[in-house]
Amino acid sequence: MINAFNNTCLIQPEEPAFEGLKNKFLAALYARDRDSARDLYKTIWDKAVSLSPDLPENHEKALRQIQVAAKRFKEDFPALKDGYRQLQALLRDVVKNQSGPVRYISAEQWLEKQDLAPWQENRLYETAITFQMTTGCSNFCRRCNEWALPKVRAHFTGEAVQYFLEKFSRSHNPDPALYGASDPLDWEDPPLGFDDILPCGKTPYSILTKVPKKKTLQLKRLIQHQVNFSVSLTSRNRERVKAIEQVAGICLPKQHDTDTLLIPAGLDEDFTTVKPSITDAYGSEITPDGAFIIIPTFTSALYPMGHRKIAVSKTTPYFPVRLQGRQALLKDYFKPLEVVGKTSDRFFLDHLLDVQVESILLDNGNEDLTPPGMRSIKEYFEIFDESPRIHRKNMIPAVMGKLKQAGLKGHRGYRNLSDKEKEKYRRQIRSHLDFTRKKPVREAKVAAVCFFLRAVRSYVRGHTAQKKIIAFLTQKEFGKLKHQPPPDLDRLVEPGQANAWPFFRYHALSLVHEENPGPVDRFVLAHPARFDPQKDRFTFS
Question: Which of 3, 32, 131, 263 gives a 20 to 30 Å CA spacing to 75?
Fold first, then answer.
């Protein structure tokens, strides 16, 4: 039975040290386990001391998240107060130690450290959504969703920046963002500044800046060179930006033109609720510290930045197909990812990543939790209801017309299609017709429920700390569900109009809250399911 729920994948390495410790520490805080919380805090302190002052960027971010969580709960944990002050002092010392010469990292040094195969480098440049040229940020905004580190610590050299920009161009990467947990105008390699590395006029890069102090001249040069960029406004830079606009006689394009963000982030994170995702992109990221795969998540104690970072290494077998903005929102986060590996051919995984399972478990179906344009898993289950089925049936003539127009475009009738094109055309017609009939729709519904429950069953067996965090974040919801009769999964197989959402949600959360897993085990083993990317549906194996 254990093998039936095995769900492994090379892209899911063990958590980085401080991320794993953060999750265990949060689980202890939520459980009000004072002894475990104290011991874990001591372990965190010892490891931080052993690595300081040269803490990698993501390690220090995790430490700062641990500190925010400790501050939120320290009144209930008096024994943490001394440790909190000590760790705060250590982090201040880390920042103070940046007072010396800023480090410069060449492309050769970075590539040697990454030790990637040529094909991995190529996939990295093709899928890059973020090129962060600097570690640390001069702004250090309180509500930074990237938890940017205070003070600039390192830069890519000018040669390295040009190297990566050239690689993006040759890889036909359309618009990587030249920022991340840093401000692009912070970058420099004297005598070069950020404005010196960009061509005049419209660039293919996404550029967002808060206009750091002492960088006004560079911003004016960008304006003079007609480089496209946006300014992120906060209460701290609003007047400075207004003065620049008055001198230049223009109105700069702006983002975040409010005093608060829609989603609590950074030091405003409460670690007790789930918020919509901040990140709207699948792909990879290059920073002075390394390369990472980026998967969007809901914003929560598990991923306070609104995405999961997975370190890229020489064992990385594939990269997610690059999606940004509306494309990323239209991607159903709960379906297996489309990826690209050693060859340039795209393919779909046959399972979900752990981070996807976590998002499924945190998605309670509330409309306020779903960003505009994104479909929740609850909404997905609604496509199996009777009303949508009838609507699809009524749309058959219109759909067939569109398929004919698209499938035969540029050809003189069906006979002139190749055998492969004919099969694709017929498959599209069959797929829509099948999904207008009661039995295939019911089977697809059961397959989807089984696929997701199998993924959850596998996940909860190997993620003790994360399961406790998810249980805490969903305790009120499950408390209400427990007062209702448990839905019988076998009813989904019977002819009828049962909506799948209540069945799935109850049994998925019951696995997290360690209720009886027997019904799920029996149901999933009786109905093995898989994802069919050609039909874009779940089917029986």
Answer: 263
